[in-house]
Amino acid sequence: MHRFMSIQKTIAHSFNEIKSILLQFDDDMYQKELKIISNGTIGQHFRHIIEFYFCFIEAQQNGCVCYDERKRNYLWETSVIESLNIINQLNDNFLQLDLTKKIKLKQNYYNDSFLIESTNQRELMYCFDHSIHHFAILKIALTTTFPTVKIPTNFGIASSTLHFQKQEK
User: Fold this and answer.
1) 40 belongs to a structural domain
2) By residue range, what is the domain housing residue 104?
3) Structural domains of the chain, count
4) pLDDT at 2 exceeding the cut of 60
5) Closest to 135 (Cα-Cα) out of 32, 12, 45
6) CB–CB of 103/119 below 8 Å?
7) Model-level pTM?
8) What pLDDT digit, counting tens, does each position of 35-65 carry?
9) Highest taxon of the source (predicted)?
């Protein structure tokens, strides 16, 4: 029988990976425009990841999440300390969630929007999977621009890829 890690523990692990990287940065490095990611910054990518999680937590109040309409907090892309603080706050919120609670997901497409049923667990899984995509981009930027930054071993590798690699051994 397989033992499954809860999504909250998976996200806590992911947040620890983020924090291990952020603790190696100062605000200037965090805001540096990098050609390899279309003049984006490390901070912009981490802000984007954080905002999806934050948007989900805010949606607990009204029962509907819309990642397209999330508030942008530019402090999270310019301040390492502020990013670390919100990550800690988010993690505390995740540990208290009822994963079976139903929530609506609003998605905007062009000039239309759709509303579908979801659960807290499914939306947390979405936020996590979305973050892995950005971790992969960040890993490219970090290894080429900041080669002395220590990056966690499996940072930016999808869970399905890690599972496949284990099976291949």
Assistant:
1) yes
2) 7-168
3) 1
4) no
5) 45
6) yes
7) 0.91
8) 999 999 999 999 999 999 999 999 999 999 9
9) Bacteria
> Which residue matches tokens 């523990």?
9
* pLDDT tens-digit map of 132-155: 999 999 999 999 999 999 999 889
Q: Please report whether residue 2 resides in a domain.
A: no
Could you tell me the CATH number of the domain that includes residue 139? 1.20.120.450
CA distances from 29 to 12, 40, 89 (A): 25, 12, 24
In degrees, rounded to 5, the angle at the alpha carbon of residue 123 between the alpha carbons of residues 122 and 128 is 100
Look at the block and give the residue holding tokens 């599972």.
163
Q: Is residue 1 part of a domain?
A: no
For the record, the structure tokens of 140 come out as 């490219």
Q: How many CA atoms lie within 13 A of 95 on its CB side?
A: 10
Is residue 107 one of the residues assigned to a domain? yes
- Dist CA 84 CA 86 (whole Å): 6
Spatial separation of the C-alpha atoms in residues 72 and 50, rounded to whole Å: 10
